[in-house]
């Protein structure tokens, strides 16, 4: 059995500063422009090792940098939906969240003629409506939740919880979840945002974490996916690019490792784990079955 290795890049550009951080200071917003320097570096590195990547792109970025989106697409990488302007879906009612979904889809279509099958929410935030909306728009997978590490699962809809009553699990629905973790995200390790994020780590620390997490996945989660999240404006700095290339050489040194886009991995995983069979198998995250048995 192989272990999938996905190098994913959240191409936020200015959207994260304008949308998530509500920045209006030109200096802070200009951090996002570094993406235009970083993207060619990343694409050249992926081409050097013939690795397919997944780029999660907000509509705001697609309209700002259509030529870079076109190049990413032309070089065979996957493009996934990453919101409109890096907004938090929970800040909108259902109609507003659907509007943001459509603005993102329209921008990716306009920039590169792409209709993504994958979604990653801005800053990994969800509203109570997000999964229903993803199903309505026909997405095959999401990669924003943290209910596992290397083994995918089918997302649930209708969980109920408060701080007074027992947790009630909803039902698994036909949306594959590729879990993520802040551990495997370059932003908290490396970025600096005053009064918010104090990263600026040496590469050696992050390299150790990203190597050992990968080695554990390869040894203990055969058939699983090592899902690494990076941001061009973060990973694109010189010493971090050198770290990434060393890690790529570590990952590719094993014959049972297959570099993959998220959608390619999902399509293969779905074929082996259709929802009904997976639900009945008692796989992890199939809590509704467990609850029925206990009832
Ligand atoms: Zn992002």
Task: Please name the defining characteristics of this protein.
single chain, 295 residues, alpha/beta, five-stranded parallel beta sheet, four-stranded mixed beta sheet, 14 helices, 15% strand, globular, disordered C terminus, binds zinc ion
What would a concise description of this structure say?
This protein has 295 residues and is of the alpha/beta class. It is 45% helix and 15% strand.
Structure commentary:
The structure is a single chain. This protein has helices at residues 15-20, 26-30, 35-48, 59-64, 66-74, 94-112, 130-136, 186-190, 203-220, 232-235, 238-251, 262-272, 275-280, 287-294, and strands at residues 3-10, 54-57, 78-81, 118-119, 141-142, 153-157, 171-177, 192-193, 197-198, 225-230, 257-259. With 295 residues, the chain is α/β, with parallel strands linked by helices. The strands form three sheets. Strands 1, 2, 3, 10 and 11 form a five-stranded parallel β-sheet that branches. Strands 4-5-7-6 form a four-stranded mixed β-sheet, with helices on both faces. The chain starts with a strand and ends with a helix. Mean pLDDT is 95; it is low at 290-295. The site of zinc ion has 6 residues, from loops.
Derived structural class: alpha/beta
Rough shape?
globular
Q: Tell me which CATH architecture applies here.
A: Alpha-Beta Barrel
Q: How many structural domains in the coordinates?
A: 1
Layout of strands and helices, then pairs:
Layout: E1 3-10, H1 15-20, H2 26-30, H3 35-48, E2 54-57, H4 59-64, H5 66-74, E3 78-81, H6 94-112, E4 118-119, H7 130-136, E5 141-142, E6 153-157, E7 171-177, H8 186-190, E8 192-193, E9 197-198, H9 203-220, E10 225-230, H10 232-235, H11 238-251, E11 257-259, H12 262-272, H13 275-280, H14 287-294
Parallel strand pairs: 1-2, 1-10, 1-11, 2-3, 4-5, 5-7
Antiparallel strand pairs: 6-7, 8-9
Helix pairs in contact: 5-6, 9-11
The structure holds zinc ion (ZN).
Zinc ion is lined by residues 10, 12, 16, 82, 86, 122.
